[in-house]
């Protein structure tokens, strides 16, 4: 048990030691993928999960991260596809300015569908091309595959960085 976990209240330690930890983690990643998790940077989620749930759970954590974030991005993709640009910009939960959205639309127009996995691997732009992909009527199957691929690279790199030496918090 890490020092961080040892200092948590007993009920949280029990939750983290149970299978419910994985369910909770899945929903955290869904919110992150849908760009609704404003309280925690996505770059800290996998390392945090490895600290709290345990490094021995690396494969399940990565699987949950990819499935959850992809499900969240797919939900946002569907909203963009059905609702359109004006709808999203009018929603208070959508915290991307029109100027930034114009920039991401331009990236999608210039580079095509391959910016979806590329943006999922970059800090600060993670998932931002989900919305232009929905506007462009990209197929759902293609979006899911590209989104999951980019997310796997991103989350895998974060796990590797943590396991290879980024254990400052542990």
Terminal Cα span: 10 Å
- How many structural domains can be distinguished in the coordinates? 1
Supply Rg: 17 Å
The SS-based structural class is mainly alpha
Number of helices: 9
Please give the largest β-sheet. Answer: none
Total beta strand runs: 0
Q: What's the average pLDDT?
A: 88
Main location: membrane
Domain VTT: 43-153
Organism: Haloferax mucosum ATCC BAA-1512
GO cellular component, one term: plasma membrane
In short:
It is a multi-pass membrane protein. With 170 residues, the protein is mainly alpha-helical. The protein has helices at residues 3-6, 10-17, 20-33, 45-53, 58-89, 98-111, 115-120, 130-135, 140-163.
Please provide a written account of the structure.
- The chain is an all-alpha fold and 170 residues long.
- The longest helix has 32 residues, at 58-89.
- The model has no long low-confidence stretch (mean pLDDT 88).
- The chain is elongated and about 50 Å long.
- It has helices at residues 3-6, 10-17, 20-33, 45-53, 58-89, 98-111, 115-120, 130-135, 140-163.
- The chain has one domain (3-163).
Keywords:
170 residues, mainly alpha, 0% strand
Topology:
Elements: H1 3-6, H2 10-17, H3 20-33, H4 45-53, H5 58-89, H6 98-111, H7 115-120, H8 130-135, H9 140-163
Helix pairs in contact: 3-5, 5-9
Protein name: VTT domain-containing protein
Domain VTT: 43-153
Pfam families: VTT_dom
């Amino acid at each position: 048990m890490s020092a961080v976990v040892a200092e948590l209240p007993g009920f949280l330690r029990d939750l983290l030691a149970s299978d419910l930890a994985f369910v909770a983690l899945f929903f955290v990643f869904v919110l992150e993928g849908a760009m609704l998790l404003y309280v925690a940077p996505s770059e800290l989620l996998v390392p945090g999960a490895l600290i709290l749930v345990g490094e021995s759970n690396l494969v399940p954590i990565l699987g949950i991260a990819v499935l959850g974030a992809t499900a969240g991005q797919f939900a946002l993709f569907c909203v963009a596809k059905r609702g359109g640009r004006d709808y999203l910009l009018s929603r208070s939960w959508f915290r991307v300015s029109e100027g930034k959205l114009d920039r991401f639309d331009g990236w999608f127009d210039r580079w095509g569908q391959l910016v979806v996995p590329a943006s999922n691997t970059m800090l600060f732009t993670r998932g931002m091309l989900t919305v232009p992909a929905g506007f462009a009527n990209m197929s759902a199957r293609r979006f899911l595959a590209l989104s999951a691929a980019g997310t796997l690279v991103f989350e895998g790199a974060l796990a590797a960085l943590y396991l290879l030496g980024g254990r400052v918090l542990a």
